[in-house]
Design goal:
With 209 residues, the chain is of the alpha+beta class. Helices cover 35% and strands 22% of the residues. Strands 3, 4, 6, 7 and 8 form a five-stranded antiparallel β-sheet that branches. It has a three-stranded antiparallel β-sheet with strand order 1-2-5, with no helix packed on it. A hairpin with a 2-residue loop joins β6 and β7. The termini are far apart.
Length: 209
């Protein structure tokens, strides 16, 4: 599917994967040496994104460079997703921790909804002093291995508006960055456990500072 996406869509869809493999190790075990992760993965992603911006201005040199970079760019993420798919046979929640949720939804792979606490998780969110950063806290996630957060600047009652934001290995709270200051933003979260994922929490809407 990645190879059929436009350059712009590919950049958007793999961003959660970059974040998951840059901020931590969603595999929670040894990472094979053939996978590109961490700072190297982020560098490849940021470079391709910058070249794409230049190509969008009509710069022919940038267009040629972008087109030459796209195949190896695809392969880096295909390798990651192939490994995640293999490992998910024993851990069905791994695709969500690894930022691959969009691709798994398109494959219609079911993930169990399980109870990780006594009730549906309850989310509270507050702005931090850092520009574009918020602190989210969730209650009712006692059995969770991690928390997944989603956000939308649109109507939070429309399911299609929600997009992946981040995964935090430590259950209970999460600091998320790079939100757009001055905009109304809605956030929600759910717990990720070994057996599956919890229902989504309530959503919280606030103006990002």
């Amino acid at each position: 599917m990645l190879t059929r996406m436009s350059h712009s869509e590919a950049i958007v869809r793999v961003e959660p994967i970059v974040e998951a493999f840059t901020t931590g190790n969603p595999i929670q075990g040894p990472i094979p040496s053939f996978l590109v992760v961490g700072d190297e993965l982020k560098s490849i992603y940021e470079h391709f994104k910058e070249v794409h911006r230049g190509a969008e201005t009509g710069n022919h040199t940038m267009v040629a460079e972008r087109n030459s970079l796209r195949p190896p760019f695809n392969q880096v993420f295909i390798d990651i997703m192939d490994f995640v798919e293999l490992a998910s046979r024993k851990d069905p929640t791994l695709p969500y921790r690894a930022g691959c949720e969009y691709f798994w939804h398109k494959k219609a792979t079911p993930v169990r909804t399980v109870a990780v606490g006594k009730n549906i998780p309850v989310l509270t969110v507050s702005n931090l002093n850092e520009r574009g950063a918020v602190l989210g806290k969730m209650k009712g996630v006692g059995k969770a291995k991690s928390i997944e957060m989603q956000y939308t600047y649109g109507d939070p009652t429309v399911e299609a508006n929600w997009a992946h934001l981040a995964v935090q290995p430590t259950a209970g709270k999460m600091i998320t960055r790079n939100l757009e200051p001055g905009r109304n933003c809605s956030l929600r979260g759910r717990a990720v456990a070994t057996a599956g994922v919890s229902p989504w929490s309530n959503y919280v809407t606030l103006i990002i500072t």
